[in-house]
Design goal:
Blueprint: E1 2-5, E2 10-14, E3 26-31, E4 41-43, E5 46-52, E6 59-65, E7 71-77, E8 80-88, E9 91-98, E10 103-109, E11 116-122, E12 126-127, E13 131-133, E14 136-142, E15 148-154, E16 160-166, E17 175-177, E18 180-185, E19 189-194, E20 200-205
Antiparallel strand pairs: 1-2, 2-3, 4-5, 5-6, 6-7, 8-9, 9-10, 10-11, 12-14, 13-14, 14-15, 15-16, 17-18, 18-19, 19-20
């Protein structure tokens, strides 16, 4: 199964199964009339994607029926969707940023009706995509004063857990494994932190 999108907010669904008469055949397309900032994401027969305007001051998360492309729900963001939408613990998590307002958000949404369970807000110019592990959401951001952090918040209620100062901007979504969270600070260091406390395990300068 493959979902693809292009920069003008057109979501194209390609299904390599009996629904298509030939492999790679286009089954449907959905035009949101915006810029498709967030990568599309598939979960339980629903296709999700985020769009925004060119000035990055507004945006929307869409949930579409994966079989026919009809809209199930949409959620207006306080910013625009960036990088990734992920699923965990029966929810979907999405990061959003408003460059003009220097505000960024993590939203936790019900995947079936779009209801917002909680929102975490920071005074930041940019968030990475969220990474969810062991009831925690990890993400990187930088604030208007060029201070760079990796954050951990509670995946169930959005409460703050810890943050770790990095020497450079974190542009990519962190990853987890072996009870550690890994991330790269641009042009400088690779880090491994204890996922539960944020304490540093090791740092590799590259």
């Amino acid at each position: 199964m493959k979902i693809s999108s292009c920069s003008v907010g057109l979501l194209i669904f390609l299904l390599f199964s009996s629904l298509a008469s030939a492999p790679g055949e286009k089954i449907w397309e959905y035009n949101s009339n915006g810029y498709a900032w967030a990568y599309p994401f598939y979960y339980n027969n629903i296709a999700y994607f985020g769009n925004g305007n060119n000035s990055r001051t507004s945006g929307t998360i869409y949930a579409l029926n994966a079989e026919n492309g009809t809209e199930i729900w949409k959620f207006d963001l306080q910013g625009i969707a960036v990088y990734e939408i992920v699923q965990a613990y029966g929810n979907i998590y999405v990061s959003a940023s408003s460059i003009s307002a220097s505000r960024s958000y993590i939203h936790c949404l019900n995947p079936y009706n779009g209801k917002c369970n909680w929102t975490y807000e920071c005074n930041a110019d940019f968030f990475t995509g969220p990474c969810v592990y062991n009831n925690q959401v990890f993400f990187g951001f930088y604030d208007p004063d060029d201070i760079y952090y990796l954050y951990s918040i509670n995946a169930l209620n959005g409460d703050y857990i810890w943050k770790f100062w990095a020497e450079r901007i974190i542009r990519r979504t962190p990853s987890v494994g072996k009870k550690a969270v890994f991330f790269n600070a641009e042009f400088e260091n690779m880090y491994s932190l204890k996922y539960d406390t944020g304490d540093i395990i090791w740092k590799y300068r590259h």
